[in-house]
Amino acid sequence: MMARSHVVVGVAAWLAAAPLLHLAPYDPAYLVLAAAGALLPDVDHPASWVGRRTRPLSTALAALLGHRGVTHSALAVLGLLALLAEAGGRRGVVAALVVGYLSHLAADMLTPRGLRLAWPLRGSWGVPLCRTGSAMETVIVLALVAGTLWSMRHEAALAALCGRVCR
Ligand SMILES: [Zn+2]
Questions:
Q1: Alpha-carbon distance values, 129 to 12, 59, 112, 136, 142 (Å)
Q2: Domain carrying residue 141
Q3: Ligand 1 (ion): which residues have CB within 5 A?
Q4: For 97-103, what is the mean pLDDT?
Q5: What is the distance in A from the centroid of ligand 1 to the CA of 19?
Q6: Does the predicted TM-score (pTM) go above 0.70?
């Protein structure tokens, strides 16, 4: 997906996830971190938004490991969690970055190339619904935003329903 789509999906994922994590969904720092986390995996692509800003790192990663390699895997998520834990990251900081990062992986799984989630093992997973930059990508992003807005508007009703069902 395009960088703008990743940012929108990352922020939407954060707005949906934050209440479940008992964190402030509208905290500007968390919103920025979720957007940053949503862009971070494409550091392995020199032509991506983040790749253009992190050369020569992105060029080296692309040459050594390829695009959608380790940075788009479960190993990267575990590595990010370990780095943040080692750095003493606050719970909200870690959560926002990881939710954004996971949203990127989920969004990329909707493209025909899929993801090698078990990198370095071969084999990719995905549900090919749209090509990067296509009109369908825009439709999917708008549908995710609409679903997030709907769930936020009905959060109290959903919590009450869940409270009744989960008892
Ligand atoms: Zn990507």
A1: 19, 29, 7, 8, 14
A2: 3-165
A3: 41-42, 108
A4: 97
A5: 26
A6: yes
